[in-house]
Amino acid sequence: RVAMLRTARGIGRALQGLPGRSSAPCLTRQPSAAWTAGGTRGLVNAETMGTVMRVDQGKWSAFMFGRERQLLIHVVNTAEEGNAESVMSAMDTFWNETFKMEGTDSWSIRGDLIDRVVKDKKPRRCMEIGTYCGYSSLRIARNLPAEGLLVSIELDPLFAAIATKIVEHAGLERKVKILMGTVEQRTDNILSCFKHMSKAGTSVDFLLCDHSKELFVPDLKLLEEKGIAGPGTVVMGDTTVYPGEAAIAGGGDLLSYFATNPKYRVQEHIGTHQASGITVSEW
Prior knowledge:
Layout: H1 2-16, H2 33-37, H3 41-49, H4 66-78, H5 84-98, H6 104-121, E1 125-129, H7 135-141, E2 149-154, H8 157-169, E3 176-180, H9 183-194, E4 206-209, H10 216-225, E5 234-238, H11 253-260, E6 265-273, E7 276-282
Parallel strand pairs: 1-2, 1-4, 2-3, 4-5
Antiparallel strand pairs: 5-7, 6-7
């Protein structure tokens, strides 16, 4: 427990010491009682996954917080501040070196597809489930109009904090709001973030599902019930298992859901690895 508290304090010092701008409005709300009581949950989860390493005080080192912290340091040290292209290039370089180019082809296909869909759709209201370190958030936000907004949901507080700093370094903090929690916990916050926009209705124009693959369909159904996904919403789901991820059953359910649901029209499906792929569908 002492080690975990030291780790939490260390993360705070590490992130406070990095250059950045003011926090995004949707992150300034007081944390809920559940998150306050279980504030170390994300750290425990990250340690379990092996992305955070426990070390004693005498071995405080660059490996303290694992590869995600190393990514943040690499971005801040090598990417031009305020330049989203430079930040994404730095992230590409880091991950290519980390995973020895494994998964590069699928990752490039996904990035190109995100760019194409966003440019074709010209969305103003966008949502992403599964921020991780913010790479896809940057790809979406850089192509949004001046009044456009992306709300991204991330369960793990450590990843959300790192992604927030990366988005700030890219100069896109006015277009990206990162919320910590699950879709079920944050539906009201999602609606609140879009409330100031003049467009009638509550549904988003573009939704990227990039979190736990077995939750794609349940979370999409919940967003449909709340009116966040509705007529005109383009949904993109990526069931590809990338380097560093664990293969979990359930990803194929999304394509089946689209194919059997008369509300949706599948626009594109690109196979990336065995039964995995990227699907784009519009309500």
